[in-house]
Structure formats: structure tokens, C-alpha cells
Amino acid sequence: MWAEAARQLLLAAIGLSAGVAVAGGLFSFIVELGVVADFADRTHTGDKILLYESSVALGGILGNVLYVYQIGFPGGPAQISLGPWILGIFGIFAGIFVGCWAMALAEILNVFPVFMRRARIVRYLTAFILSVAIGKGLGACLFFFRGW
What is the pLDDT of residue 2? Predict the structure, then answer.
């Protein structure tokens, strides 16, 4: 009995330690990419950077809690349908978050400037960026609405 309790406590400590290490790496990656600082700079709200950082951390914590304890959203398959619009709002925010990650990573790696120079399409930069955004949006719509 005591051995099983000690084993469970050890497993809990190892799991918590591993989770803290992974979360620390993830949030340091977000900071390194400059996503939060870039948002604050572009919106001229640098005085609220602590709010942005707290929101990112809270979102990560809540996302993990929802995943680990398998808490469903209202309207999801495990819950009574209280409104699928909640899932739509979550989807929009999740898409914005992932899109910002992708753009920040591409910006850090200088993907777009190098590609534009190599392809000699500097003149059509606006059309290129709009095409990427529209293509990504259409692809997401096809994926979610056709059930692929």
C-alpha cells in the first residue's frame, strides 16, 4: 500500500517536472520568436506587455488542463450542445495563434525576403502575401467543412 502511494507520488513529481520543462521551453521559444513583443510593437501597446505575456501563459495552462482532464467545450461531442459558436470563436483564436507562430518563424528565418529576391517578385509582394493568406484560409475551410 505504501509502496504504491510512493510510486504514484514519484510518477506525479516526474510528470509535473517534465511538464514544467516542456512548458518553459515552449514559452521561451515564443519569447525568442518575438511574437508577443511584435504584437505590442505593432499595436503601440508596449505598456501592456505583461498582460500579453500573462495571457499567453494562461492560455497554455488552460489548454493543457483542458487536454489532460479531457474537459469538453459546450457544443462539443462530449457535452450537450449549448452553441457551436463557442467552438467557432475558439477556432478563430487558435487559427490566429498558429498563424502568428508561422509568420514569426518565417520572419526570423528570413524566408520571405530570400524567396522574394530569388523569385524576382518583389513588385508583387502584396499579391503574394494575400495569395498565401487566402490559400491557407480556403484550405482550412475545405478541411473542416468536408471532413477530411
Answer: 82
